[in-house]
Amino acid sequence: MTAPTLPRTEKAEGTPHTGRASIWRARIIVVVLSIIGLALLAILSLGEARTDNPLDPSSAGPTGSRALAEVLRQRGVAVEQVGTASEVRDRAPGPGTTVVVSGTDLLTETNARTVREAARDADRLVVLIPSQDILDAMRIPLTRGSPPSGRYEAECDPGATDGIVRAGDRVNSADGSYASTDPAVSVCFRVLGTPPSEGGAVAIVPAESDRPTTVVIGAVSGLSNRHITEDAHAGVAIRALGASPRLLWYYPTLTDAYGTTGGPDDGQPRALYPMMLLLGITVVTLAVVRGRRLGRLVPERLPVVVRAIETTQSRAALYRRADDRERSAAILRTRSIDALRRRLGVTPSEPPAALITAIVAVTGDDPNRIESLLHGPTPPNREVLLDLARDLMDLNERVRRR
């Protein structure tokens, strides 16, 4: 007995149809990826046009600093933006000029040294969120650190601040902290209750023979268009950047960072990175064309269905075994804050104080108690952690029933 076979006509008609469909799919994928690659190359070839670069004085996006630059112009400061270290040198920033360096993630050590030498006769040098390598290259005697953990409510430590920081000034966040063992260096905006070794969000270094008065700012988010109007951000920024009639604002371009102007890849052609991008797109296209999964995805039944409550209980057991009270408390508080914000209509962009005010208006509780519940210290033991969980559940339930 022989096995049944398909008729010849069915074989002859089915196989070519399937092959043609796969070929057409592959061609469509190749065309789409080629269009995407050409679009990316066209964007790169347009030059250095940017729309929302952090701390870019020409950017009107949320993280740009165009609002600060316009305010300085309205106050009579001549703001000049440059994109290369050689331009800073050529414009000869001498007396009556403040030099600002932002976009330090694109700043090379070679360009940092060039700017330091060019700005030696300027009134002031302001550097925004520099790394430790950049600090060393510019010979600024500071140590870069991370902002202290916890709720950031910093107040300036009184001292010789060159008129930049005034008593009572506050900033609501910091992206980096800077510390110094030099008593002549003024470190401001420390987190309340932390030791001086933790550093602060602003450091003011007195002038040396090869360097003007240097201001290092770690609270750079406060200089952005989104947050410039909050707390003392605008006042500190204007006093730091607007002390001279002329402001030379250096924001490194990609050409300055990766081109042939003394960057780390000196001697490499400017077209190298677009060529590498095109090569990567070609490799991905080839992998897709040669791949076996060009057809429709076929769903596969899972061998085991795990209920959500089981994964939740397992994760809780892991936290309990590790005795990770800090992370457990942080998760409880974060979830509660998100839920309370949604129920009370408080947006995430509003400060924590706005949420506390809304909760007090609904529940009538003591604001200090709400503050301790949502932003208090880590529970010292498991019992206190359980009490925190119960109190947060009770608070959410009372707000929900309002």
Task: Explain briefly what this protein structure is.
This protein is of the alpha/beta class. Helix content is 44%, strand content 11%.
Overview of the molecule:
The chain is 44% helix and 11% strand. The chain contains 13 helices and 12 strands. The strands form 3 sheets. The chain has a 7-stranded mixed β-sheet.
Features:
single chain; alpha/beta; seven-stranded mixed β-sheet; three-stranded antiparallel β-sheet; 13 helices
Summed over residues and divided by their number, the pLDDT gives a mean of 80
Broad shape? globular
Q: What profile does the largest beta sheet have?
A: 7 strands, mixed
Which stretches are low in confidence, meaning pLDDT under 50 for 5 or more residues running? 1-16, 260-267
Number of helices: 13
Secondary-structure map with pairings?
Blueprint: H1 8-45, H2 66-74, E1 78-82, H3 85-90, E2 97-101, H4 109-118, E3 124-128, H5 132-137, E4 143-145, E5 154-155, E6 170-171, E7 177-179, E8 186-188, E9 190-191, E10 202-205, E11 213-217, H6 233-241, E12 246-250, H7 254-258, H8 272-290, H9 308-322, H10 325-344, H11 352-363, H12 367-375, H13 382-400
Parallel strand pairs: 1-12, 2-3, 2-12, 3-11
Antiparallel strand pairs: 4-7, 5-6, 5-9, 8-10, 10-11
